[in-house]
Design brief:
Elements (H helix, E strand, L loop, with lengths): L2 E2 L29 E5 L1 H12 L7 E5 L24 H10 L14 E7 L7 H11 L8 E6 L6 E3 L18 E3 L4 H10 L13 E6 L12 E6 L11 E6 L6 H4 L2 H5 L2 H5 L3 E3 L4 E3 L5 E5 L5 E6 L5 E4 L20 H14 L2
Parallel strand pairs: 2-3, 2-10, 3-4, 4-5, 6-7, 10-13
Antiparallel strand pairs: 1-8, 8-9, 9-13, 11-12, 14-15
Length: about 350
């Protein structure tokens, strides 16, 4: 277990206790593991979903990002700003790396894939997401793909509730990049991954948000020293088999930029926890969603580094690595940030 964190901004009250800084292990179903992310976190979610499809056996969700391996083969800005990036070489790389540098692409046929973009997003935009959809269509089962275009939404994580400090939905790109757009992004991606869930908990939370040491094998260049994981109460003693979802923030959404708003305001944790219903007879505990939510964290890096294509570029916005900042293999299984996140996942599963 790691250190229990009390967050005044978090909706409800987190209960439970923990000690130490190490990441614990729980009774997690290996077949339940999934990942999603926004923007740079969306690119990373796609990289993990493709390269580690054997680990993320349920699937992956991508909010406001572009094709896998996009920035290796063209300047990274071609993968943003509503451009039309080429997917020819990236898709060929997926085939040639399959079973070696990445897990077999045949796995993608059995993975659930969720895609979402705002129609008014100027930072990434609809066109790169369309290219991602086309790229994945070479390998996936169309019946297992959901592609949502949120009308009038900017570059933001969409929710259907108001939270302190959030940006207006129709603003193109504004911190904290979380907005009430009348669309529950966290709920929809989790329901696409896991099927029908019990209603989310908009009241007091019953689990523990745990701070853990994100160093050693659990960290890498560009990653912060601390990560977070939300453990529902029912998952804490190992008696219940739980699901695991990894939620990846975007650029400028790490704690140094927006504090804990990505954890507090996106709604992932609301769907992870217990749902209670008051009846005439008693307060009954209904079925629970029992989803462990892992929140790995990045950090600002102002050191100019050589990215794919040879350009020197710093990472002061604390983005996940989808441009080759921390190695030519950034989107392959050997990529340092990819390995660190998977090490966290394996630790939570106890493998």
């Amino acid at each position: 277990m790691g250190k229990f964190v009390s967050l005044t901004a978090l909706v409800g009250v987190l209960t439970g206790s923990a000690s130490g800084d190490s990441l614990g292990s729980y009774n997690v179903d290996p077949a339940s593991v999934s990942v999603s992310g926004l923007s740079a976190g969306g690119f990373m979610a796609g990289q993990l979903g493709v390269a580690y499809s054997g680990t993320f056996q349920t699937g992956f969700g991508i909010f406001a990002a572009g094709p896998y391996d996009c920035a290796r083969n063209q300047y990274y800005t071609f993968c943003m700003y509503n451009a039309n990036p080429s997917i020819t070489v990236p898709t060929d790389n997926m085939r040639s790396w399959s079973g070696d540098k990445i897990d077999p692409v045949e796995n993608l046929r059995n993975r659930k894939i969720y895609l979402e973009t705002g129609t008014a997003d100027p930072t990434v935009g609809v066109n790169p997401m369309n290219k991602l959809r086309d790229q994945l269509a070479e390998f996936n089962d169309p019946a297992k793909v959901s592609y949502i275009k949120t009308e009038g939404a900017g570059h933001t994580f969409p929710t259907d509730f108001d939270a302190p400090g959030n940006a207006p939905c129709d603003v193109g790109s504004q911190s904290p990049f979380i907005s009430n757009c009348g669309y529950d992004g966290a709920g929809e991606v989790l329901k696409w991954m896991y099927g029908e869930l019990q209603p989310r908990n908009d009241g007091a939370l019953t689990g523990s948000l745990i701070e853990f040491d994100q160093t050693g094998s659990f960290g890498a260049a560009g990653m912060a020293a601390t990560g977070y994981v939300y453990i529902p109460a029912a998952c804490q003693d190992g008696s219940v088999k739980c699901k695991l979802h990894v939620a990846l923030h975007g650029c400028k959404q790490d704690p140094s930029h927006i504090g804990t708003k990505f954890i507090d305001n996106t709604g992932y944790t609301k769907w992870a926890v217990l749902f209670w219903k008051l009846t005439i007879v008693a307060l009954n505990l209904l079925d629970t969603n029992n989803i462990v939510i892992l929140y790995p964290q990045t950090k600002r890096d102002s050191t100019p580094r050589v990215i794919w294509g040879g350009t020197m570029l710093p990472n002061p916005n604390a983005c996940w690595d989808w441009t080759g900042w921390y190695g030519n293999d950034a989107d392959q299984k050997s990529g340092v940030q990819m390995r660190a996140i998977v090490a966290q996942v394996n630790q939570l599963m106890g493998v």
